[in-house]
Design goal:
Length: 287
């Protein structure tokens, strides 16, 4: 058995960009690479069947399945993914699981890491997952800034040279599906327009304070915030904390401690997870 851990990623600002080529598609944006993520364990099968289990439950997991097909067409695998954070809440769990799975399969089939990374990026783009998470995670920076969309070398990721300790991720609503939200042409056009201003503002001043400021400006002006997200951000700011929306989820990231977040919103109304930004290496383990 081969296993691999891959960090998650929160997008604070994103600008979707699509191309005829998956390697040129993705997004520009600003994000936080997390010390929590997904662990994949992969065992080969001899019958060509691909079984995927997400947190112990058998799943279609089409993006992970696509990674397996790209890297080893027709081969069978038992793939088990354990997520540290909820899926479809803007924490990059789909990308983390795809990368971790891809690395395991690449190791089993004698392929290199970059081939696995490219497969994960392709699957995310073609499968309607996160459009920039793979490039940001692979870059290995605490706060990666995706200045050119796509997977390197066609895409480009730069280091904001920030580290964020004591981060809390708080889920305050139902899952949000990326392709459904961005399926509205008017919403997509507005997101792209607003993101240009937000990116320019942050690049001019890549500071801790400005990260939260441009994130709030982007989520508000783009219209992506749900009423619950706006109330949560406002309440945290009233208490003297920084907060922003996780793209795309009914969730926020904040420097308020986990217990303070739970106390503010009630344990029955919020799921809160403590973490920090991370440059943690993506590690493969055998056995």
């Amino acid at each position: 058995m081969i296993s691999a851990f891959c960090p998650g990623h929160v997008s604070c600002v994103f600008q979707p960009i699509t191309s005829f080529d998956a390697m040129s598609s993705g997004s520009r944006g600003i994000g936080i690479r997390l010390d929590k993520g997904a662990t994949a364990s992969v065992e080969p099968r001899d019958d060509g069947v691909v079984n995927i289990y997400l947190d112990g439950v058998q799943s279609v997991a089409h993006i992970t399945r696509m990674v397996a097909e790209i890297l080893s067409p027709g081969s069978g695998f038992d793939i088990r993914i354990a997520n540290d954070l909820p899926v479809s809440q803007g924490f990059g769990m789909s990308a983390a699981g795809a990368i971790a799975t891809g690395l395991c399969i690449a190791e089993l089939t004698g392929q290199d890491r970059n081939t696995a990374f490219r497969a994960a990026h392709s699957a995310e783009v073609m499968g309607g997952g996160g459009l920039g998470d793979v490039a940001a995670i692979v870059a290995g920076m605490d706060v990666p800034v995706r200045t050119v969309a796509g997977f390197p070398p066609l895409g480009r990721v730069e280091n904001a040279d920030l580290r964020i300790e004591g981060l809390t991720l708080a889920v305050i609503g139902e899952k949000m599906t990326t392709d459904l939200v961005l399926g509205d042409p008017a919403v997509l056009a507005r997101v792209r327009e607003v993101a240009t201003d937000s990116m320019d503002s942050f690049i001019a001043d890549p500071s801790y304070e400005n990260l939260f400021r441009v994130s709030n400006e982007f989520s508000s002006r783009s219209g992506l915030e749900s009423p619950a997200v706006r109330r949560a951000i406002s309440r945290l700011e009233e208490k003297g904390f920084h907060a922003g929306m996780c793209m795309l989820g009914n969730s926020v990231f904040t420097d308020a401690p986990v217990e303070r977040v739970r106390a503010l919103f009630g344990r029955g109304h919020v799921r809160a997870y403590g973490c920090s930004s991370s440059r943690k290496e993506i590690v493969i383990r055998r056995g």
